[in-house]
Amino acid sequence: MASISSIFRSKSFFLIFSIFFQYFILPLFLILVAAPLYTYYRTVTFLSKWKEGLYAPLTLDDCIHGTDDIHGRPGRAISGIVYLKCSHTFDDLVTKMEKAAIKHPKSMCIITRWMSVKFWKKCEDFKISNHISLNEESDPEKLSQFFTSLIDKGFPVGQPLWEFISLPNYAHVEYGTSSAIAMRVHHSLGDGLGFMAIIRDLCDKDPAADEEVEKLLEAIRKKMKLSFWKKISYVFQLIFATPAQALYLWMQGINSPCIPPSSNQDPNFDPDEPMLVNVSTLIDLPLLKRISKKTGVNVTSVCHAGVAGAVKRTIMDRGGDRAGDLVCLYVLPKLNHPGTLSNNV
Question: Which residues form the O-acyltransferase WSD1-like N-terminal domain (predicted)?
Answer without folding.
Answer: 102-215
